[in-house]
């Protein structure tokens, strides 16, 4: 294996690999990030790719589009800026049955599950062409599947798993989360339900989140190889230090707590409550808060959790009006209002900012039925939803500090009283700073270290806490350390020689097919 920080091996590494999973949230996103980081540290020109992502966590790219946040994180692992090429199809769920479709960074309508199937053939051409473009520009492309390839009811129109692997002739490794239980059956079953041509591309297994005695797992892995003819390429251990950005599942949250903060500077912890809206969007905005020593960040879904919070955050939402209705029905709206009227800080980001205003106008039915609803009335602002989505990566100042961020929203604000929270380069005001209640459309604002420290200092002063923000916390450095941890886990626990052979040579010829009633039926259907 190649050591950390070593130069590229004499033999140039080129090729492509698809990482599939036994389930959603099996660890595909972080494994791809880890493989990308391992290769990047060896000097390999590597890029990430996810043909189709379904996520309300997204970022704006330098080329003016929108992609899933996981692919932006994977790009950072490669030392690359985000690009629409890394995620050509993004589905942003608005309800349980409909999603906004973003194709190569641009909104391209709204679909139901049924109508989306009709678009898959054309979208397969888009993703295959985009992957070919990436492969021409980079030595290695590490692809991430979506959900599970064992969803055989969706195989005929699949563009992200075996459909992509077959179209582009990609070797596939399958990762399973042992922490869920039944991982050996999940791995075997994933292969068994596939038709032989798909099985021929599945070349190995990776077990994720293992904790325990490896000797107890080894016989099971030996039997899995005997049954399938495919090796386990490694077992990744459970790592409590790993809390890096996840998808909409908020998989990095343990018992509602975000991150693993160090002890505070001073006697007191600062407590942050983030309302977990049903259609939360870009909830990873608050990850930067949890990187600060002494800041305890917790997702909450009921009013009592706000009682002892020093700062309440209303995050973004894909369906602002519907989530505002939910906020009222749960009693959280009253709790947020009481918190603000007691002089305690409240921060609203994007959809959360819109909820804090006086009214939300949706004349074109962007979210649902056209109309106007009352907000919480905590900020003197009204928002009107435009049909066109506003995307941008502006810079400016906030709370006297230079900031960079990104915007993804339909809402156009009409500000009344209150100073702007952000002043864009050129002097345009954005958001509202009403002292203890603040709102902005800016995503990623809290990743600006100096601004984050000012906000936390203000919250600590309002709460009378003996808390001082750490003067040297760098969120970029924290994120880089998390990516290096992923790279270390890959390097130390996977058979990287075998992994590199798969990338360069593809799936070995002659991998045996698993003959099952289901597999035979799939092959002849």
Automatic annotation (TrEMBL):
Catalytic residue list: 350, 443
Coiled-coil residue spans: none
Pathway info: Cofactor biosynthesis; adenosylcobalamin biosynthesis
Pfam families for this protein: CbiA, GATase_3
Keywords: Cobalamin biosynthesis, Glutamine amidotransferase
Domain CobB/CobQ-like glutamine amidotransferase residues, every copy: 271-450
Gene3D superfamilies named in the record: 3.40.50.880, P-loop containing nucleotide triphosphate hydrolases
GO BP, sorted A to Z: cobalamin biosynthetic process
Stretches assigned to the CobQ/CobB/MinD/ParA nucleotide binding domain: 18-243
Xref: PROSITE patterns: GATASE_COBBQ, GATASE_TYPE_1
GO molecular function list: ABC-type vitamin B12 transporter activity; catalytic activity
Family note: Belongs to the CobB/CobQ family. CobQ subfamily.
Job of this protein: Catalyzes amidations at positions B, D, E, and G on adenosylcobyrinic A,C-diamide. NH(2) groups are provided by glutamine, and one molecule of ATP is hydrogenolyzed for each amidation.
Record's protein name: Cobyric acid synthase
The organism of origin for this protein: Actinomycetospora succinea
């Amino acid at each position: 294996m190649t050591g950390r920080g070593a130069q590229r091996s004499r033999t140039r590494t080129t090729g492509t690999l698809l990482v599939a999973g036994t389930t959603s949230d099996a660890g595909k996103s972080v494994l791809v990030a880890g493989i990308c980081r391992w290769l990047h540290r060896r000097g390999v020109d590597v890029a990430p790719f996810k043909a189709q992502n379904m996520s309300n966590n997204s970022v704006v790219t330098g080329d003016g589009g929108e992609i899933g946040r996981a692919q932006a994180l994977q790009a950072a692992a490669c030392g690359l800026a985000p690009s629409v090429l890394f995620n050509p199809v993004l589905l942003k769920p608005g309800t349980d049955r409909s999603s906004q479709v973003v194709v190569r960074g641009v909104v391209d309508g709204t679909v139901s599950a049924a109508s989306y199937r009709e678009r898959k053939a054309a979208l397969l051409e888009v993703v295959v062409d985009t992957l070919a473009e990436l492969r021409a520009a980079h030595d290695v492309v590490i692809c991430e599947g979506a959900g599970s390839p064992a969803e055989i009811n969706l195989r005929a129109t699949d563009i992200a798993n075996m459909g992509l692997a077959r179209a582009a002739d990609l070797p596939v490794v399958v990762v399973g989360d042992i922490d869920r239980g039944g991982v050996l059956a999940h791995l075997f079953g994933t292969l068994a339900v596939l038709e032989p041509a798909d099985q021929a591309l599945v070349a190995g297994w990776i077990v994720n989140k293992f904790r325990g005695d490896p000797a107890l797992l080894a016989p099971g892995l030996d039997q899995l190889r005997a049954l399938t003819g495919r090796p386990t390429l490694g077992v990744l251990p459970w790592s409590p230090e790993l809390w890096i950005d996840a998808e909409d599942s908020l998989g990095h949250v343990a018992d509602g707590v975000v991150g693993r903060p160090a002890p505070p500077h001073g006697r007191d912890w600062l407590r942050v409550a983030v309302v977990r809206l049903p259609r939360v969007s870009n909830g990873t905005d608050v990850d930067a808060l949890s990187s600060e020593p002494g800041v305890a960040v917790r997702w909450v879904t009921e009013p009592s959790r706000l009682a002892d919070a020093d700062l309440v955050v209303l995050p973004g939402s894909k369906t602002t009006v519907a989530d505002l209705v939910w906020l009222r029905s749960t009693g959280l709206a009253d709790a947020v209002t009481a918190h603000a009227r007691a002089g305690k800080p409240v921060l609203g980001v994007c959809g959360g900012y819109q909820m804090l205003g006086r009214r939300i106008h949706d004349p074109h039915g962007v979210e649902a039925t056209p109309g106007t609803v009352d907000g919480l009335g905590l900020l003197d602002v009204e928002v009107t939803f435009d049909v066109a989505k506003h995307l941008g990566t502006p810079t400016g100042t906030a709370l006297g500090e230079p900031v960079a961020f990104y915007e993804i929203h339909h809402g156009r604000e009409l500000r009344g009283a209150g100073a702007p929270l952000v002043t864009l380069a050129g002097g345009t005001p954005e958001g509202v700073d009403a002292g203890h209640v603040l709102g902005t459309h800016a995503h990623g604002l809290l990743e600006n270290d100096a601004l984050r420290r000012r906000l936390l200092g203000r919250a600590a002063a309002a709460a009378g806490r003996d808390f001082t923000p750490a003067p040297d916390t760098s969120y970029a450095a924290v994120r880089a350390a998390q990516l290096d941890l992923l790279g270390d886990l890959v390097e130390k626990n996977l058979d990287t020689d075998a992994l590199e052979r798969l990338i360069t040579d593809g799936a070995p010829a002659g991998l045996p097919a698993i003959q099952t009633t289901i597999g035979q039926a799939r092959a002849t259907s």
